[in-house]
UniProtKB/TrEMBL annotation:
Protein keywords: Signal
Position of the signal peptide: 1-23
InterPro entries: Peptidoglycan-bd-like, PGBD-like_sf, PGBDSf
Record-linked SUPFAM superfamilies: PGBD-like
Protein name, per record: Peptidoglycan hydrolase-like protein with peptidoglycan-binding domain
Every Peptidoglycan binding-like domain range: 65-118
Keyword set includes Signal: yes
One Pfam family, short name: PG_binding_1
Length: 198
């Protein structure tokens, strides 16, 4: 089926909505630690209101909300540093290591290129099925539809992440049928595309 671009939801309108945390059963402490590294709190959504080139340049000595975000992301990437909002020597050292890993200039300055890496990772990892469902509900604006996801985050050919959602009609479900009326790929940026089942 040919994919059809339906809409892009303004991120500003939906990012303020709270989303419940998903609970993950882990078989061991090691798996729990790995899961916590993958999961990033959605406390920094306000930063998504500005493109990387519009973010402030952050350097050693800075103290801010942005520094706390940078430190949170460093920890997420496996570079341990205190998350205290103060850009000290340890944060600079860990930032240089991350910049080196990502092929960026190792200058401990958070400029456009480093912001791009941090914000793209944040958007991809903080995107949960609940948010995808909210995007679909907003874009399709049909009170008869129920959306569900298997919780699997997918990636398209260009590297963009999305959830595949099944849309079911409440009316058809009440009539005893499967209710399935379509499938949609919902991307972390709010883009919703009609699709086939994965």
């Amino acid at each position: 089926m040919k994919k059809k671009l339906l809409a892009v939801v303004p991120a500003v309108a939906l990012l303020a909505a709270p989303f419940p945390n998903q609970v993950t059963d882990a078989a061991s402490t090691s798996e729990q630690v790995q899961e916590s590294i993958k999961t990033i709190p959605a406390d920094f959504d306000a930063l998504l209101n500005w493109a990387p080139e519009e973010q402030p340049t952050v350097t050693q000595g800075s103290q801010s909300y942005e520094v706390e975000f940078i430190q949170t992301m460093l920890v997420h990437f496996g570079y341990e540093t205190d998350v205290d909002g103060v850009f000290g020597a340890d944060t600079a050292k860990q930032l240089k290591a991350l910049q080196g890993e990502k092929g960026l200039t190792q200058d401990a300055v958070v400029g456009t290129e480093t912001w791009t890496v941090l914000l793209e990772e944040y958007k991809a990892k903080s995107f949960q099925p609940e948010r995808a469902i909210l995007y679909a509900e907003h874009v399709l604006a049909n009170d008869d539809l129920l959306f569900s996801s298997d919780g699997m985050l997918h990636e398209d050919e260009s590297g963009k992440t999305f959830y595949s959602l099944k849309a079911q009609s409440k009316e058809l479900l009440e009539g005893g049928g499967s209710g399935t009326v379509g499938f949609y790929n919902v991307y972390y940026d709010g883009e919703v595309e009609e699709s086939s089942p994965l």
